[in-house]
Amino acid sequence: MAYLVQPADIELAVAWWRERADDGWVEAASDNIYSSGTAYTETRDELDRVLLIARGEFARRAEDLLAGVITFAAWALITKAQIKIVHIVGAALAVGGFNVLRDAVQGKPAGPNTPSGGASILQKIGEAISREFKFFERFAKQAQTGKNTPARAGMYAEAGRGTFEDVRGDVAKAAGKTEERRVLGVADHCADCVAEAGKGWQPIGSLRAIGDSLCKTNCHCRFEYR
């Protein structure tokens, strides 16, 4: 069962975003993140920037645990909150702002390009959070035996990129687009990503999701739609 996103989760993500967003990306009065004219590449670049910040925060909390600065219970609580944040922020960037998610979680009507009145967006966020929580449970058990590595902890931040691209696919479909293609990002590409990119234009949803490749959350690929 997917995690049920709560209004408090949205507000926690808003507060986190406001402290880390680059200048010009937050309209204080509305919590809109970008206008409809903002280029996708700018949005994705901003996401990558804040996820890099999040990766450092995940790693530092793991270092604090190893050093005995915080308790295991405190570390687990903080890390699970951060997991929720990166997926909510990723989805918010994909749809244009936190207000879309606020409306969805309250059951209010969404804009014309928002799929299923926002319900499917919340479902995708919840599924991503549930999936990462399961991974974290195994990681936490290992951490209790001293097998906690800050680098591995940082990978939880990178998973927000997959949620961003996943939600963008739904938004593209709602806008009437029917095809997608995978574009390789700046990274050492795994064989899966190279193969998927080589398929060219395909029906939306038929290509592997970002993160569903050998490179996992380290994937830096992007999708284009038409």
Describe the 3D structure.
The radius of gyration is 17 Å and the shape is globular. α2 packs antiparallel against α6 and α5 (about 120-145) packs antiparallel against α7 (about 160-175). The chain has a three-stranded antiparallel beta sheet. The chain folds into two domains: about 5-175, no CATH class; about 180-225, no CATH class. It contains eight helices and three strands. With about 230 residues, it is mainly α.
Task: Itemize the secondary structure elements and their pairings.
Blueprint: H1 7-20, H2 40-67, H3 72-95, H4 98-105, H5 119-143, H6 150-158, H7 160-174, E1 179-183, H8 191-197, E2 202-203, E3 222-225
Antiparallel strand pairs: 1-2, 1-3
Structural class: mainly alpha
Taken as a percent bin, the fraction of beta residues is under 5%
Mean pLDDT: 86
Low-confidence stretches: none
Count of the separate structural domains: 2
Shape: globular
Rg to the nearest angstrom?
A: 17 Å
Number of DSSP strand runs: 3
How many helices?
Answer: 8
- How many strands, which pairing sense, and closed or not: the largest β-sheet? 3 strands, antiparallel
Regarding quaternary structure, how should these chains be classified?
A: single chain
Gap between N and C termini, in Å?
33 Å
Order of helices and strands: HHHHHHHEHEE
Features:
single chain, 226 residues, mainly alpha, 2 domains, 8 helices, 3 strands, 5% strand, globular
In short:
With 226 residues, the chain is mainly α. It has eight helices and three strands.
